[in-house]
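Thread: DUF4197 domain-containing protein, structure

OP (GT): Posting the sequence first so everyone is looking at the same thing. Length is 243 residues per the record. Can we get the structure tokens written out before standup tomorrow? I want them in the notebook alongside the other entries.
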Amino acid sequence: MIRLVGCIFGLIIATTPAGATMLDDVMKGIGGASKGSVRGSSDLDDSTVASGLKEALAVGTENAVKNVSRTDGYFGNQVIKVLMPEKIRKVADVLKTVGYQKQVDDFVLSMNRAAEKAAPKAATIFGDAIREMTFEDVRGILGGGDTAATDFFKRKTQNKLYEAFKPVVSSSMNDVGVTKSYKEMMGKYESVPFASKESVDLDHYVTSRALDGLFYMVGQEEKNIRTDPMARTTDLLKTVFGK
């Protein structure tokens, strides 16, 4: 168990030169550590290190959820912004050329507002996944890369998140006018001579893109906590990950 916890610790800190030095110190100390501690010269025991790992995950997911839940959390981030569905992108291009740029822009904005409104649902689901984390889950993380924890969250939470997000997205899209904007946009498009009819499942599309963006942000937070001491915002994180 001591070796396993040492590996957990190393997974998170070994991505920086300073972290690599600390990892070397930890691994050297494991051989002489008394039972229940990570290394003989440290006050850190297995429970503290495990708690630190879970807190790192909690901080990362909390930051990600907060970032995407705020106004413009999706719309203002060009990496995760919910764009026009590819299936009706041609529709938007045609409408822009015939004077309906505003309607297209309003439609895109309203999709992002729906995603932002649904995002807070992720907080509880991520928290449950962290609390239920087993050593088998940890071993899976150890075998992964810089976003191994994010991949763990995808496996454990994506279906639950989809089920939680979709009703909120659907309701939000009605509230913020997505459905209305979509119908107006498609109505104008279909009035254009020779335009073909197109359709898309907006609830599914916005929910899926919202989750893609959320997991991207979780991955960024994971990388941040691994490499940036300033991202360790609690005493426990500083104790476990500080030199």
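GT: Both are above now. Quick notes for whoever picks this up: Confidence is low (pLDDT under 50) at residues 1-42. Residues 56-237 form one domain.
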